[in-house]
Amino acid sequence: MADRAPRGWMLQADSLSMLRHGFFTRLGGVSSAPYNTLNCSLASADTAENVAQNRGRVAGFLGVSPDVLLGLTQTHSADVVTLTSKSPVWPTGRGPKADALVTNRDDLALGVITADCGPVLFASTDGAVVGAAHAGWRGAVGGVLEATIAAMASLGAGEVTACLGPCIHQPSYEVGAAMREEVLDTSPEAGQFFMPAPRSGHFLFDLPGYCLHRLRRAGLCRLSTIGLDTRPDVARFFSHRRRTLAGGGAIGHQISAIRAGSVI
């Protein structure tokens, strides 16, 4: 379980310190290369046994059984799943298509999988309502962060705090002109989050800056960020962009998760 994992297997936000939560790295698991070691992706070609053990370690830290560490079939959407006392719990690996979860139940843990996209963990200030969102550029532009906040409000959350976990940062995130135009068509103010890349006709996109901007615009005042770039940090994080630059191949994913009402 968590007490056997090496130092550095998990990062936490001071603003969420009243709750069990973690932005877990790729350290502290059982998977072998190229999934080494804490691969938590059920969609990878890693063995089911290894992924189950890895997710079990995360669940153990959060104080829940592995079957209630809930995740989604992520699709880069703005869709949010709300879990209440009447909500059924799906089997591991069969989560609905969506990119965020919220709950007021303290017997569940909510997790999102990333390997460059932005994992965002949310909590009401009393810890009674929590959320987890997967925010790539498409999801962020589409409004997944605002939709998560709205879903939490429907459960009675008042003031909400949020933390953005490790994700790809501007120096590592070169994009084409078409992607920039697609973002600006929906979100014209996002021009401030692009700067020219060394390669002609390309740009560097500030995904964390844009996500935090959307969160502030949605009314959140209590915001923080882990501030780590996944692409260059080979030791601690999986990265789709790193894999792409290396010519492809298999990849694992890290998990970020939170549980309501569980003071550490």
Automatic annotation (TrEMBL):
Q: Which domain of life is it from?
A: Bacteria
Q: Quickly give the catalysed reaction.
A: inosine + phosphate = alpha-D-ribose 1-phosphate + hypoxanthine; S-methyl-5'-thioadenosine + phosphate = 5-(methylsulfanyl)-alpha-D-ribose 1-phosphate + adenine; adenosine + H2O + H(+) = inosine + NH4(+); adenosine + phosphate = alpha-D-ribose 1-phosphate + adenine
Q: Coiled coil located at which positions? A: none
Which protein family is it in? Belongs to the purine nucleoside phosphorylase YfiH/LACC1 family.
Spell out the Pfam families in the cross-references: Cu-oxidase_4 (PF02578)
Q: What is this protein called?
A: Purine nucleoside phosphorylase
Query: PANTHER family this protein is in?
Result: PURINE NUCLEOSIDE PHOSPHORYLASE LACC1, UNCHARACTERIZED PROTEIN YFIH
Q: Which UniProt keywords apply?
A: Hydrolase, Metal-binding, Transferase, Zinc
- What is the species of this protein? Asaia lannensis NBRC 102526
Establish whether keyword Cytoplasm is in the entry: no
The gene behind this protein is: pgeF
Quick check: keyword Metal-binding in the entry? yes
